[in-house]
Amino acid sequence: MQFRTQISIPKSNFPIDYNSKIMSLGSCFAENISEKLDYFKFQNIVNPFGIIFNAISIERIIQRIVDQELFTENDIFYHNELWHCSEVHSSLSHPDKEQFIQNLNEILKLSHSQITKLSHFIITYGTSWVYRNLETNNIVANCHKLPQKYFKKELLTLAKTEKSIENTISLIHSINKNVKFVLTVSPVRHIKDGFVENNVSKSVLLQTIYILLQTEHYKLNIEYFCSYEIILDELRDYRFYKPDMLHPNEIAVNYVWLKFVESSISSASFFTMNQVEN
């Protein structure tokens, strides 16, 4: 008798090994998987500009990196005794204005160099809900605790999401034509948006990636790893969540990692991984 559904995950056509150079970008779940890659000593870089949840903001930061568009004082603002940038996470915010700009530009230059050498780019999309700054009319990666009155909340359409992901892939390929992509949807639930709204948001992301994977052009360079489905359909129980009931707990992350290893890590790497762990 079987008490749960098991998801069949195909083997990757371009598996990761110890020669691979990986960048992981996106939601906090991207950081969960990156911690595992780091633990097993893979060549991995995660979220150089911090956690970013939506497709438009990921596209924007990639565009800035690829074009080497340096940050200036026009890109930052002061709030609650810190300098912030709406394109990056608050973990990078800094009390000193000049140092903040310098830090951002150093990360930008390093990220550009790193992307040119990558073999794999993992992007985890978290939500289709975005916040648009009413003054600049730009979608922000982070609101930095500014009052809600400064923003308008929007749901990205399927067309906008598809175009944004296509742009992101094209931008990266413009400086590294050989890099392969692994796209995932974060299983973290954004319940502040509402239960129905969270499901609508995830459905936009899932459908967009599905559509992209039906085209011959993208099939050659992109694969989808079903972290969302593993948590929601295979584990499917609150005991696999942290006390906030939103984030997968350590057991769940470990399980997803094992599935990722089975499908996306080269079997030639297993011996070295065992040595690292033992």
What order do the strands of the largest sheet run in, or round the barrel if closed?
A: 2-1-5-9-10
Distance between the termini: 35 Å
- The level 1 CATH classification is Alpha Beta
Taken together, the total number of domains comes to 1
Taken as a percent bin, the fraction of beta residues is: 15-25%
CATH topology title: Rossmann fold
Compute the number of helices.
Answer: 9
Low-pLDDT segments, ≥5 res = none
Instruction: Round the mean pLDDT to the nearest integer and report it.
Output: 96
Architecture in CATH?
3-Layer(aba) Sandwich
| Rg measurement, Å | 19 Å
Level of helix content?
A: 40-55%
Helix- and strand-based class?
A: alpha/beta
Largest sheet: 5 strands, parallel
Global shape: globular
